Amino acid sequence: MQRKSFFRTAVISVAVFSLAGSLSSCQKKIEDEILEKSIEQSTGNDVELNTATGKMSIESDGKKIEVQSEHASWPADMPAGIPKFSYGTVKAVTRTETSGARGWTVACENIPENSIREYDAELKKRGFETVLTLVTSDRGAGGSINATKGAVSVFLMADQGTATLAVSEEIK
């Protein structure tokens, strides 16, 4: 009798733990919850954090930030007319959205020399006005570009084989 009671308790315990485990996998990860609470406490705003898709997105008060560092690639939602920065490898992409603007930041590595000059020429071909182009070496391995076209601004900074491209678009 005692053995039967022990067996029944063991079976029920396994069933309860299995059910609890399967239910918890449907919920947010504990890491997301902790990070979400930390952001809420430091900003004073409610935020929604989701990392389940391989991206981290934070939403608060009509603003959204999304960071993609796994399998990052050129953003498909980049404004039309922005030439793809096809020099090197995309390592991370950040998207932001506020009530008046959208933004993209693309971080690249292993960029070749002369990419500043070549991207500057691509921007000009697409009708961008270069506000500032700075090349810091004869080979064009480092420097920056600041260009605009209508409601779109582009800023590129490169040095020692890495580059960061920032694009912002005003929304009317």
TrEMBL record:
Signal peptide per UniProt: 1-20
Keywords on record: Signal
The name this protein goes by in its record: Lipoprotein
Species of provenance: Chlorobium limicola (strain DSM 245 / NBRC 103803 / 6330)
